[in-house]
Design goal:
205 residues, alpha+beta
Length: 205
């Protein structure tokens, strides 16, 4: 029970950091809008705000818009973040598999895979965050236009913030805790500030 509580606290901290990253993108887009307004010499006393930024979403460049559209078109066809594995815990709120009186909320899916497995990007994009948390080890966030994919519980990371990655490119490895033969990846998918069920986006195995 104590271990479950620690993991839940770590997951809550992770989600807070994800939301911070999203808000940072929104602020950056608004700053770009202000600079654009100044460059055009509109003469307005108020900085221009795009419709997308006003709606709480980062304004996308044409390239990012194309990336978002391409990502969306691949729903149900994205490669898995590891070559081998099975879902050990589903997305959403459900009863804990062992503690029947405890309800857990999972903002992503947990994938049980081989010890030392390579973890890879499910789509091309930009690495926006590389973090480290107790109980979640290392975490990588990749932005694909308006979408974000989150890979946590990595033992090693092979990318840095600002790196551009391709689909199926290695971003790190995962190792099991001592005494276990298999490791577990926690994977999340966001669209703006909305959490999505990653399972419906991954290719059927």
């Amino acid at each position: 029970m104590a271990e479950l509580k620690k993991k839940q606290q770590a997951a809550k901290k992770l989600n807070t950091e994800i939301e911070k990253a999203i808000n940072a993108e929104i602020r950056a887009s608004e700053e770009r809008n202000r600079k654009k307004a100044g460059a055009t010499g509109s003469g307005s006393t108020k900085p221009a705000r795009s419709k997308s930024a006003t709606a709480g979403k980062p304004e996308l460049t044409p390239e990012e818009t194309q990336l978002s559209t391409s990502f969306s078109a691949n729903r149900g066809k994205l490669p898995w973040p590891c070559e081998r594995g099975l879902i050990s815990e589903n997305y959403g709120s459900h009863t804990h598999p062992v503690l029947k009186h405890v309800t857990v909320k999972n903002n992503g899916i947990d994938i049980l895979t081989e010890n030392g497995a390579t973890i890879r990007a499910v789509f091309g994009g930009k690495v926006t965050k590389v973090m480290s948390f107790q109980h979640l080890n290392k975490v990588v966030i990749i932005r694909h236009g308006e979408y974000l994919t989150v890979y946590s519980n990595l033992s090693e990371v092979h990318v840095r913030e600002g790196d551009m990655v391709k689909a199926k490119q290695s971003i790190g490895t995962i190792r099991a805790v001592e005494g276990e033969s298999r490791a577990e990846l926690h994977f999340q998918l966001w669209k703006g500030k909305t959490i999505l069920n990653p399972e419906s986006w991954l290719a059927t195995r």
